[in-house]
């Protein structure tokens, strides 16, 4: 599946209070030429319904889930919904799947065995009355075993909170063909203190979560880097902040390291849809 080299990742495209404004913004983003619009799983809910709203508003841009939790969304329901959207709109949703953390598995009443659980979920998608083709699904993989599974049984992987060095390592594990679409947080602000404060406002919760913290440690960050919402070193490594040239430099670093596509998440100090920032970034749509 061709999703271009850049896209936008946005919780606001699910959460914003005015659905009409989401539709209007999505149509504008489609005209700007972004390869994909990514919506996160958040706490569950009707993620395919939210994807459908974006499909109605767009003509060319791929709609992707980045990512839905396998513990919250039964595979057969997702397969049936995915097939319905494909029939109705003539293009698939790229179904991004994640194993979240142990707490999510325990809330679902099961042990946390991410590799076997994800493998079983993919089996269910294959065996559904309306199977989801491997090329229309991908995996949020941050460890080597899940990355290898993603390369064998899906279009590829969509890792979260990673550096270009991680991207290079993941490409080595995947081989040359699979999709590698890292999430990249961005703050459109060239004031260092303000940009880092804005970034911490969103990312501090994730940095403190066990599975993301473990991934960051594997990437070479220390306990000091993980404390207090993230050190300047960590924030600068996983967040691209500054003007459009600085953000483009980070995108190109991922692409040079082997990424197929980079999903940009605008973090803003203001609420609502970050349409001003999206317009500023429009030259990066490709």
Overall pLDDT score: 96
The CATH superfamily title: Luciferase-like domain
How many angstroms separate the termini?
A: 15 Å
Q: Which percent range fits the helix content? A: 40-55%
* Percent of residues in beta strands: 5-15%
CATH architecture: Alpha-Beta Barrel
Gross morphology is: globular
User: Rg, please?
Assistant: 18 Å
* CATH fold descriptor: TIM Barrel
Say how many strands there are.
Answer: 11
Low-confidence stretches: none
What's the helix-strand series? Answer: EHHEHEEHEHHEHEHEEHHHHEHEH
CATH class: Alpha Beta
How many separate domains make up the residues?
Answer: 1
Alpha-beta classification: alpha/beta
InterPro entries: Lucif-like_OxRdatse_MSMEG_4141, Luciferase-like_sf
Protein name: TIGR03620 family F420-dependent LLM class oxidoreductase
GO molecular function, one term: oxidoreductase activity, acting on paired donors, with incorporation or reduction of molecular oxygen
Brief account:
This is TIGR03620 family F420-dependent LLM class oxidoreductase. The protein has 14 helices and eleven strands.
Question: What secondary-structure arrangement, pairings included, does this model have?
Answer:
Elements: E1 6-9, H1 12-15, H2 19-32, E2 36-39, H3 47-57, E3 62-65, E4 68-69, H4 75-89, E5 93-98, H5 102-107, H6 114-127, E6 137-139, H7 144-153, E7 156-157, H8 164-174, E8 179-180, E9 183-187, H9 192-207, H10 210-218, H11 223-226, H12 232-238, E10 239-241, H13 244-257, E11 262-266, H14 275-281
Parallel strand pairs: 1-2, 1-11, 2-3, 3-5, 4-5, 5-6, 7-8, 9-10, 9-11
């Amino acid at each position: 599946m061709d999703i271009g080299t850049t896209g936008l990742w946005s919780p606001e495209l699910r959460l914003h209070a005015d659905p009409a404004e989401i539709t209007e913004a999505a149509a504008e983003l489609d005209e700007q030429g972004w390869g994909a619009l990514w919506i996160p799983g958040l706490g569950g809910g009707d993620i395919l319904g939210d994807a459908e709203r974006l499909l109605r508003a767009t003509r060319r841009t791929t709609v992707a889930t980045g990512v839905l939790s396998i513990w919250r969304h039964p595979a057969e329901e997702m397969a049936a919904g995915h097939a319905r959207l494909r029939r109705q709109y003539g293009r698939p949703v790229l179904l991004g799947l994640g194993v979240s953390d142990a707490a999510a598995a325990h809330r679902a009443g099961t042990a946390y065995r991410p590799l076997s659980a994800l493998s079983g979920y993919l089996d269910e998608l294959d065996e559904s009355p309306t199977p989801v083709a491997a090329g229309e699904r991908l995996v949020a993989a941050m460890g080597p075993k899940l990355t290898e599974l993603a390369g064998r049984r899906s279009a590829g992987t969509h890792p979260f909170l990673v550096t270009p060095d991680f991207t290079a390592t993941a490409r080595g594990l995947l081989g040359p063909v699979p999709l590698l679409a890292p999430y990249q947080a961005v703050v459109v602000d060239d004031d260092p203190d303000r940009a880092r404060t804005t970034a911490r406002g969103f990312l501090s919760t994730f940095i403190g979560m066990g599975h993301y913290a473990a991934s960051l440690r594997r990437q070479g960050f220390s306990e000091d880097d993980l404390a207090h919402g993230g050190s300047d070193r960590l924030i600068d490594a996983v967040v691209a902040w500054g003007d459009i040239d600085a953000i483009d430099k980070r995108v190109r670093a991922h692409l040079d390291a082997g990424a197929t596509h980079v999903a940009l998440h605008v973090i803003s100090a203001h609420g609502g849809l970050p349409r001003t920032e999206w317009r500023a970034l429009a030259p990066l749509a490709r």
